[in-house]
Amino acid sequence: MGSTQNVCGSTEARASGHSLQICLIFLTLSVVIEDRIFCVHGGLSPSVHCIDQIKAIDRFREIPHEGPMADLVWSDPDPDKEEFAISPRGAGYTFGAQVVKKFLNINDMHHILRAHQLCMEGFSVLYDDRLSTVWSAPNYCYRCGNMASILEIGPDGHKHFNVFDAAPENERDGPHQQMQLQQQQLQLQAIDGENPNAYPRPPQVEYFL
């Protein structure tokens, strides 16, 4: 919200911040790729043993401070642990190799893919290639000096991490210039009344996993 205020001012920031919060409420909690890879933002939960339990979670609300939804968003792997432990973040849990193995076996999955943790090399792979963390924000907060990555998964399940660095400072467009460009593009689309796809309707979502 702070960066939104810097770009738009307090009035616009409140309006855009509210719209953003609504969008976030509609994001999925997890995704399964090719019946092999379980994707989640944070990590696992001691309250969630099988993927079907995630379908029963009431997603359309703000993330609570505790419970399975909070765990999926806030939990982190810990190479020094085997089981679940209290997280120093104050929400979610840390979890170890045995937790990952059990979850993958129960759900007949091969890999867990997640984000949520800064990786100086852009990614990390833990627990004998059973879990990967992908971090896609280079030089986080403009001061961490970290690399970033985007993960590609081939048809055979092979994972390739595309690692990249932050753009040089003199080649970046500031957020104000980017927003101006987006507004100009939207104005041009609005003027062009003959374009029915200027504001396409979002696809209907039948269920959330």
Automatic annotation (TrEMBL):
UniProt-listed Enzyme Commission number(s): 3.1.3.16
Pfam families, per the entry: Metallophos
Enzyme category, top tier: hydrolase
Top-rank taxon: Eukaryota
InterPro entries reported in the protein's UniProt record: Calcineurin-like_PHP, Metallo-depent_PP-like, PPA2-like, Ser/Thr-sp_prot-phosphatase
Catalytic activity field: O-phospho-L-threonyl-[protein] + H2O = L-threonyl-[protein] + phosphate
Keywords: Hydrolase, Manganese, Metal-binding
Annotated Serine/threonine specific protein phosphatases domain residues: 4-168
Gene Ontology terms, MF aspect: metal ion binding; protein serine/threonine phosphatase activity
PANTHER family attached to this UniProt entry: SERINE/THREONINE-PROTEIN PHOSPHATASE PP2A-RELATED
The protein's name in its UniProt record: protein-serine/threonine phosphatase
Organism of derivation: Phakopsora pachyrhizi (Asian soybean rust disease fungus)
Taxonomic placement: Eukaryota, Fungi, Dikarya, Basidiomycota, Pucciniomycotina
